[in-house]
Known about the structure:
The structure holds 2 protein chains of 2 kinds. Chain A is an alpha+beta fold. In chain A, helix 24 (631-646) runs antiparallel to helix 25. Chain A starts with 8 loop residues before the first helix and ends with a helix. By secondary structure, chain B is α+β, with helices and mostly antiparallel strands. Helix content of chain B is 30%, strand content 32%. The two termini of chain B are 30 Å apart. At the A-B interface, helix 5, helix 6, helix 7 and helix 21 of A face helix 2 and helix 3 of B.
Amino acid sequence: MARIYQVPSHARLWLTLAIIAASLPQLSDGPWWQAVLLVVVLGWRALLDRQRLAQPGRLVRLGLLLATVGATFYSFGRLHGPEAGSALITSLFALKYLELVGKRDAYVLIVLGYFVCATILLFHRGPLAALYVVGCLTLLTASLAGINYSDTHARRRQHLTVASAMLLQALPLAVVLFVLVPRVAPLWNMQLDSGQARTGMSDSMSPGQVSRLTESSELAFRVQFQGTPPPPDQRYWRGLTYAYFDGTTWRQARPPGWSDADTFYDGRGPAPPWYRGLRAADRGPAWEYRVIMEPSQQRWLYALAVPFTDLDGQGLARDLRLVADNPVSGSYGYQVRSVPAAAEGLDLNGPERRLMLDLPDTGNRRARDLAASWRQRYRDDRELVQAALRYFREQPFHYTLEPPRLSGDTVDGFLFNTRRGFCEHYASSFTFLMRAAGIPARVVAGYQGGEPNGDYLQIRQYDAHAWTEVWLNGRWVRVDPTGAVAPERIELGLRGLVEGRADAGGDAVAGALGRLPVLFRVQQWMDYVDFNWQKWVLGYRQEDQRALIERLLGAFTPTRVALALLGAVLLVTAVLAVLVLARRRDAPARPLEREFARLRRGLARRGLNVADCHSAAALEAAAARRWPGAAGRAGHWRRYFEYLAYRRDGDPPAGELRQLRRRRRALMAGLKA
Amino acid sequence: MVKNAWQRWLDRRLPRARQVQLDQRRIFILPTGYGVLYLIVAVLLFFGGVNYENNLILALCFLMVSLFVVAILHTFRNLSGLMLRAGGGRSGFVGGQGSLEVVLIARRRPHRALWLRWLDQAAQEVSVESGEETGLWLNLPLRRRGPVVPPRLRVESRYPLGLLRAWSLVALDQECLAWPRPQESADCPAEGGDRERRVARAGQSGSEEFRGLRGYVPGDSLSQVDWKGYARGRGLNVKLFEEPASGRLWLRYDRTDELPLEQRLSILCYWVLRLSRENRPFALALPGAELPPGQGDEQRQRALDLLARHGKGG
C-alpha cells in the first residue's frame, strides 16, 4: 500500500540548517549568484511551508535547473573540474530543497549534502574547516533522525542529541579506519589548481624580486628535524639555482644539448652516473628532517645541501635540488636526509663548466676589471674568494630592503655607485665577479634561517634569500656575500635583524614582521596546531602509515595490515556495542524506592529478616515486633513515607526527602535501645 | 517448498507465545536501500579522497562508514528488549474486519518509530517511551468463518537513521473469531413460544412478569438496568422478569431450511442479531452445542461465538 512519507515538521529545522551550513563555504568562495539562488530558494520554501505559495511546477523547476547549469558554465567556462563541480552540486542541493515533498526527497537531499561537505574539504583544509564539516554532518544526521521518527510528539532537540551521540560514538572507529585503512595511490591524476598566484620564489631572479617577498609573512614551509636542528647560519634551504645571466636577470639553465635525463633523476629507470657518484660520496654527518610545504603551485622543493629522499613523488636534480613530480597544490610533506659531504661526488666539466663561467659578452666593464685585478693578485681560487668577501665587508656596502633602482649595467651600478642592496644584489654581483675571475659560480635561491616553534621550524616568505655557490677544489662551496655585509641577517634572520636595528630601512618590514607580543604568541600557537594538523592529518600518507604499522606490528605485510584492521575494528565495535546495548536497571529507582531499600538494608544488617516485607506497613510491623521500644519511631517513619508516596504526585522535593531520611536515621538509632 | 521450509524454520526458531521479548535471536537486520546508497556515497568519497590526495575527504568517508556501524547498533537497540504481549481481540463478521490488540511494553529503553503489520497488511506506526506500555489494535480481514489465527506479526524499525532495517517476525498466541455473515430470512428457525408473536410482538418485553432485582454484571443489557433505583442511590441493578415459558425462543439449527452449513449458520446469525436488537431472550441449539436462554449483549456475544466455532473443533 502506498504511503506518502511527509517530512515531519520537527525535522525541517535541522534540514534547513544543514542546507544553509553546508552551502555557506561555497557561497563565500563561489560566484555571487549562488547566494542569490539560496536566498530565493529559502524564501520560496518558507512561503511554501506557510502555504502562501504553490509548489513550483515542473516547468519552473526545469527552468531553474537550466539557469543554474547555464550560470555555472558562464562563471567557470566549464561544468567539470573541482570548482565548477562544487558550485554545481551546491546549487543542485539548494534546488532540491525547493522540491522537497516526501521522505524520498529528503533522502536525496541528504545524500547531496554529503557531497557538498566533501567539496568544502576540497578547498578548506584547516582544523576549523574539519570541525565545521563535522558540524554539518551532525545537522545532516539530525535531519535523518528526524525524518525517520514521524511521531508528532517528537521534539527537535531530541534529534540533535541522537545525532551528536551517534557521531561521538562513531569517532573512535573513524580514527581507527583513518589510521589503518591502506591508502591507495591515486587512480587517475587530478590536479586541483586553485589558479591563484602565490607569493614565493620564481624561476628567474632580477633585482628587487626577492626583496618583494620580504613584505609577506606567509608561511613557506615547515621543517621538523629528527635530532637537533643545525644552527641558524647553516640553514640554507636550497630551492633553485640560476646559471644563466643576461645582464639584468638570472635564470635557470642547463648546458646546451643536455636533456632531462642528464640533469634529473626521479627514481625511475637506471640511476645516471652523477647520481651514482653522489650516492657513492654519501658519508659523514647527515641531517634528517621532514619538510611540509605550503601550496606553492611550483614543482621545486626546499632542502639543505645534497638532499637524498626516497624519490617517491620527487626527484633529485644535478644542481642538488629536489623537484616534485607535480606542482605543490596542497600541503605536501617529504622526508629528507641531507649529507653535506656528498657534494664531492659531482664533477664539473665540458659544457656545464662553460655554462657556469658564462657571462654576457659586454657590459659591466668596471666589475670585470676588478675581477681581473684580483685574478692577477691571487693565483689560488680560495684566496680570491676571500678577497672578494673582504671587499664587500670593507667597502661601505649597506644591507637594505629598499635599495635604489638600478638600470643599465646593474652590477657596476651596484658595486661602485649605490652600494645599497638586498641579498639578490649581493649574490648577483658576487657571482658575476667570480665568473669574471674565472671561477665557476652560480646563484642559489631559497630560504635562509627559520623560526623555531615547538619542535619544528617555520620558514616564512620573508626568510627568502639568495646566495652564491662557487666551484672550489672539486666541489660546490656555498659563499654568502650578504653574510659579509650583514652577518646578523644570517645569524638572527630578517626578523631578528629588523628588531635589532630599527633603522629607516627596517621600519617598512616592521609592519609585516613586528606584531604585538600576545598576538604573536597566539599566532605561534595556532601555527603549532596547524603544523601538527598538517603533519598528522593532512600529511598522513602511505609512508607514514607504513612506518607506523612497522613500529606497531614489526612488518608491513598485507596480511598483517588486514588482521590489524579487522582486529581493531572488531575491538572498537565490541566496546561500542557494550556501551550502546548495556542493560540499564529495569526501572529507574525513584528517590522513595531508594529510601525504602535503605531501611530494608539497615534492618537486615541488624539481623531482622525483611525479605518478605514489601510495604512500609510490613516493615513497621516487623521492626516493632523485634524492637518494641522503637515502635513509635517506626510508625513515625511509616506515616511520613506513606504520606510522601501516596498523597503527592511525582517525586517529593528535596526538603521532604531530607525529613524522611531524618526519621529513618532516628528509627535506626532507636533500634539499639 | 522453500517457503514451507522457511515457515518451518521460523516456527522452530520463533515459536508462538502469549508474550515475546525481542532479543538477538529474534531480530534480523539488513541495510535499507538508502543505507546501500549511503555506503555507495561513502565509497565514492573514498575514491575522491584518494584521487585528490585529500585526507580530510577520506576522514569524512571513514566517519560516514563508522556512523553506519554505530547505526547498526542503534537500530538493533531500538528493537531489542521490546516486549510484545497478546492483548484482546475483537471479532467480526466474515467479509469484515476483526482486530487484535498487541500490547507493546518498553521496559528498559524507549522504542521509537516501530512499524507493526501482519504480513500482508498496511503498517501502523507507534512509539513507546521507556517504562510505558501501549496497546495497538491491528485489523485483520476475516475471510472464513471460525477462529482466525493471525499470520506472523512483522515488527520493523528503521529508527534512528533509516540506514538499516531491523525486524522481527513475531507469532503471538492470539486469535479472534469470524462470525458467520448474517443472511436475512423471513422464517425464524425457532421453536417454543408462540410462533405468531415471534415477529409481531418483537420488542415487547414488558409483558413478562417482574420477578426481582439482581446486581448488574457486565454484559447485561443496559435497557434492563433499574435506572430509577440507581438514581435513588440503590446501586446498579438489573430488573429480572419471569419469562413465560411460551415466550422462550429456541433458535434451532435443525429448523433451518435444507441449505449448506454456512448458509444455515448465517440465517441463525441473522436471527441472533435481530432478537438481540429487539432485546428478546432466546436460546440457541446447534448439533453438539447448546446455549441456554438469556438476553443482552453477553448472550448475543456467546451466541455469535458459538456459531463461529461450530464445526471448527472448538
